[in-house]
Structures are given as C-alpha cells and as structure tokens.
Amino acid sequence: MNYVRAQLSDSHKWIFRKIEIEGKRVFHRQCMACGRDFIMEPNTEGWRAVHVGLLEFDSLAEETSRRWLSEECPGHQLPEEINDRRMQCDTSVQKQSA
Ligand SMILES: [Zn+2]
User: Is pTM beyond 0.85 here?
Assistant: First the structure.
C-alpha cells in the first residue's frame, strides 16, 4: 500500500477527530464544506481519502486520494462525491427536498 505524503489544504473546514479502527488509533479529518474524509494512521504519516460507513472506513482509490490531497476545498459537496453510505448524522447536512 502506497501512502500519499502530503499536507491537507487549510482551505477545508476541518473537523478533527481521533477514532479507533480495529484497535488502532487513527486521525480522522472531515471537511464540513465538501464532506471529504481523510484518515491517517500514526505510523504512516500519510493521509488517505476514505468514505465513512456506519462502522468502518472504506479507502478510496489512490488516484482519488492524490486528487483530493492536491486540491483546494471546492467549498461544497460535489454531486459525484456524495457518499450515500454516509450514515453519521452528527455532521452530515440533510437537504430538504422540496
Ligand atoms: Zn473541503
């Protein structure tokens, strides 16, 4: 597994969390604006793009990781990136359907 060594852009509106996955502590950042999620395991020094599921994180393709890491925050969630498996209601924004 190749990790992308990169700094995350400060243009995102980060929510910082520490979570535990399978007994390992990992850092989690989620952007309130674009809804992108990243995790970093302490030993790897690299951020990875993930999708957040109810009980787990799914790694995204390395290509996606690279792209997200290199981009500024788009400022809103992109339609093609909406994670329909995102089940956490604490940070997700529910859109009112007209
Ligand atoms: Zn963002």
Answer: no
Whole-number Å distance between alpha carbons of 44 and 25: 12
Give me ligand 1 centre to Cα 2, in Å.
23
CA of 9 to the centre of ligand 1 (A): 8
* 14 Cα: distance to centroid of ligand 1 (angstroms): 7
Spacing, Cα 21 to ligand 1 middle (Å): 23
Please say whether the beta carbons of 87 and 54 come within 8 A.
yes
24-62 tens-digit pLDDT? 889 999 999 999 999 998 877 789 999 887 777 888 999
